[in-house]
């Protein structure tokens, strides 16, 4: 793969790598699989990399811990994305990843759901469509919050909280489709580039000033990878602001001991650590406690980088299970999250571990709603 290797070396400044090993040493996945980021860089530099012999490339969650830890500011996570692109271009990818990418291409979502059903979650909420009438903010819902029955109620809660706080917003509704954040990380570069072009056309027709995304993954790709000319926020930033400005009142006591899990693409990648914590601390009755690994050191839930659709090479040990143990060590009743993927992976880990009677996993908005309800 000489040509591909030279492109990756140039684009990612791999020649700056000093082989210190901090990337591999910090990689949470390397503790349970043979994934060795330092070695991948070394083999790429020597052009001795044969992607077909590295199934562990699909173990990476693209959590960016390796990139955060690199003293030379190399971006090892992007190397793995680039190597996956070679695999995808050659048609060598796990069937589950192939099916997810095919679903995005045909139905506009990786969940094999009908495009026409994308806004069913909001049928009785009378949410304005941004292409029909202007609004200050576009609420970008995302695929999982639109379709997954566990996450759909959170989308509804957010709509009600925005209305209570006097937010002027609308949604794309049936015109929305996958932002391709995960598609790019699964190696589908062309699909991502095509998606960017399609959204550019949609945004030209829509009248809004800023975007609010429910998922940190959607938030990250619009904020950092689309090159849009409007501000992009995560919902936790908006809710925290509404509470701070006194526009969203939290009247009810929620007598729970709560800890918080930092999602990778909200925390490590974009530095949003305080707003979700500010929300939780503003809820009357909540006793907030921290886990040992928080903020930049937060342990990945293993849901990003396409891992929602790829088992990886080690299905026995789950990072989510380890994270649940850390949450229970705090004595918390609730592990709060602000990401759909984190909610699904961590809640599944609670069920697999048989801890339902000791710990609940709730989205931040579920706790906010408890405090809002009459």
Main features:
374 residues, Rossmann fold, 8 strands, globular, alpha/beta, four-stranded parallel β-sheet, Fumarate Reductase Iron-sulfur Protein, Chain B, domain 2, 16 helices, 3 domains
Describe this structure in words.
With 374 residues, this protein is an alpha/beta fold. It has 3 domains: 2-89, Alpha-helical ferredoxin (Fumarate Reductase Iron-sulfur Protein, Chain B, domain 2, Orthogonal Bundle), CATH 1.10.1060.10; 108-240, Rossmann fold (3-Layer(aba) Sandwich); 249-372, Rossmann fold, CATH 3.40.50. 42% of the residues lie in helices and 7% in strands. It has 16 helices and 8 strands. The protein has helices at residues 2-11, 22-26, 37-45, 65-69, 76-89, 95-107, 143-147, 152-164, 181-185, 189-205, 216-224, 235-244, 274-282, 319-329, 340-353, 364-372, and strands at residues 137-140, 169-170, 210-213, 232-234, 257-260, 287-288, 334-337, 360-363. The strands form 2 sheets. The protein has a 4-stranded parallel β-sheet with strand order 2-1-3-4. It has a 4-stranded parallel β-sheet with strand order 6-5-7-8, with helices on both faces. β3, α11 (216-224) and β4 form a beta-alpha-beta unit. The longest helix is centred in the middle third of the chain and has 17 residues, at 189-205. The relative contact order is 0.12. The mean pLDDT is 93.
């Amino acid at each position: 793969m000489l040509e591909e290797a030279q492109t990756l070396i140039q684009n990612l400044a791999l020649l700056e790598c000093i082989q210190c090993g901090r990337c591999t040493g910090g990689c949470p996945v390397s503790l349970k699989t043979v994934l060795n980021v330092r070695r991948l860089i070394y083999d790429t530099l020597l052009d001795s990399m044969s992607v077909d012999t590295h199934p562990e490339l699909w173990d990476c969650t693209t959590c960016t811990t390796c990139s955060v830890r690199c003293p030379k500011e190399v971006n090892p996570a992007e190397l793995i994305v680039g190597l996956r692109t070679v695999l995808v271009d050659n048609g060598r990818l796990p069937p589950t990843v192939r099916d997810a990418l095919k679903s995005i291409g045909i139905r506009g979502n990786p969940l094999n759901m009908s495009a026409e059903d994308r806004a069913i979650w909001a049928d009785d909420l009378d949410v304005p469509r941004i292409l029909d009438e202007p609004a200050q903010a576009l609420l970008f819902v995302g695929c999982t919050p639109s379709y997954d029955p566990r996450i759909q109620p959170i989308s509804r809660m957010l709509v009600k909280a925005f209305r209570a706080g006097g937010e002027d917003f609308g949604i794309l509704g049936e015109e929305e489709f996958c932002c391709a954040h995960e598609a790019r990380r699964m190696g589908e570069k062309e699909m991502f580039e095509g998606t960017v072009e399609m959204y550019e056309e949609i945004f030209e027709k829509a009248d809004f000033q800023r975007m609010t995304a429910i998922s940190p993954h959607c938030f990250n790709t619009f904020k950092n990878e689309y090159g849009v000319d409007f501000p992009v926020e995560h919902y936790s930033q908006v809710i925290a602001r509404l509470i701070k400005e006194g526009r969203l009142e939290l009247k009810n006591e929620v007598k729970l001991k709560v800890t918080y899990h930092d999602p990778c693409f909200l925390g490590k990648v974009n530095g949003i650590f305080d707003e979700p914590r500010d929300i939780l601390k503003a809820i009357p009755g909540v006793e907030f406690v921290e886990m040992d690994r928080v903020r930049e050191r937060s342990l990945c839930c293993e849901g990003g980088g396409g891992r929602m659709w790829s088992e990886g090479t080690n299905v026995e040990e789950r990072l989510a299970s380890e994270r649940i143990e850390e949450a229970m060590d705090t004595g918390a009743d609730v592990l709060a999250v602000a990401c759909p993927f984190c909610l699904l992976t961590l809640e599944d880990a609670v069920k697999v571990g048989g801890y339902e009677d000791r710990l609940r996993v709730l989205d931040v908005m579920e706790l906010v709603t408890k405090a809002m309800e009459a």
